[in-house]
């Protein structure tokens, strides 16, 4: 039975972390999650990614620290280093839900975890590095503007001992390690992907019951390159720790390859009649679709529709993530193609499941109006008009043998370029390499 006042929530502040959020959301779908799927994003996330996110998530909610009420602003100004942290805390403002499970965008769900909703705030699993602290990559919480306010106050007054949300949340929910064992989630709900290496006998014994893998640490699945032919990540230069970690990475990429990449595929048609003002994004789309269309990724099984939009129940797939192989058309439930390069038409906006209201608009009851911060803001259409900054921040490089996701090097204006040169910041290996300059000269001389 779907429970509509409860939700799985994640966060992505840029297009790169969006790739993680997409795989996480898809993995929840694959495991037939019965709660709503919500992703919090910030203004940096491109319009294309917002549209893609809305194919997997029921709600895409933009949060913006700077537009928020004064006390948030204050906390942010006093503690600028807590930027992403304070953004994560926004999950407490989702008061149209009675209970939520937060999952980092670098987690992967391997089996159904709906039972986590039997737990209460604040439940989390031990951190592998310091088990008296919880890891803040997976936690059960109860949205409340009052708690949100208290957390921000705590951030303003005390900061965070690790400079991020985990330190802050541990000092706020400081009785976690001693007060109530029910609030200790078993480690299988937040297994750090390199734990198999640190305590391999335990992994041998309990590994098969793992439900959530967390790729915590500096190297994320999207930092690896993947071979779609062999179905495995390329080890070169990535320093893979062990075979278990590799199989979790492969699983992540398998979902990315079969269920996420096809979501970009449907934008191919837009390429032809897109206006010239949008070349950056269009080039990107071309790169995305060109290989996919002429050379579909090896599919191992029946081609199924895996696109899930608002109000469509999770796709009735097998219970394993591997079962989901798809090559879906990017169409919404209304059968309307959404063009990320032009303002969304009403059917697109309707069927995408994207929220155009801020979370607290739907809040009922709750604390006094003066702390109902987001509701005073005008509604934000998260898939609104594209602007020059809307170009993708990621490069999805694809060939038959290799898929990779890379952060796009930001295009600098000629003035910024000149300043960089003058300051001696020259990209000898990249675009200032002799070969590039030679190309430019050749073009000029022709
Ligand atoms: O640029 C960023 C960085 C982070 N995030 C979000 O914040 C989460 C936490 O960041 P992550 O890179 O996953 O941190 P971890 O490597 O998991 O490191 C640990 O430390 C973090 C900071 O305390 C905690 O948030 C994590 O839960 C904890 O596992 C991510 O999953 C995303 O959801 C973004 O959206 N954009
Ligand atoms: Mn994480």
From TrEMBL:
Question: Region Disordered: what ranges?
Answer: 292-390
Q: Does the keyword Nucleus apply?
A: no
Pfam families, sorted: Glyco_transf_8
Q: Which reaction equations make up its catalytic activity?
A: [1,4-alpha-D-glucosyl](n)-L-tyrosyl-[glycogenin] + UDP-alpha-D-glucose = [1,4-alpha-D-glucosyl](n+1)-L-tyrosyl-[glycogenin] + UDP + H(+); L-tyrosyl-[glycogenin] + UDP-alpha-D-glucose = alpha-D-glucosyl-L-tyrosyl-[glycogenin] + UDP + H(+)
The answer, when asked if Transport is one of the entry's keywords, is no
State the pathway, as annotated in the record: Glycan biosynthesis; glycogen biosynthesis
Q: What are the record keywords, sorted?
A: Glycogen biosynthesis
- EC number(s) on file: 2.4.1.186
Please describe what this protein does.
Answer: Glycogenin participates in the glycogen biosynthetic process along with glycogen synthase and glycogen branching enzyme. It catalyzes the formation of a short alpha (1,4)-glucosyl chain covalently attached via a glucose 1-O-tyrosyl linkage to internal tyrosine residues and these chains act as primers for the elongation reaction catalyzed by glycogen synthase.
Q: Which family does it belong to?
A: Belongs to the glycosyltransferase 8 family. Glycogenin subfamily.
Q: What's the protein here called?
A: glycogenin glucosyltransferase
What organism does the record attribute this protein to?
Vulpes vulpes
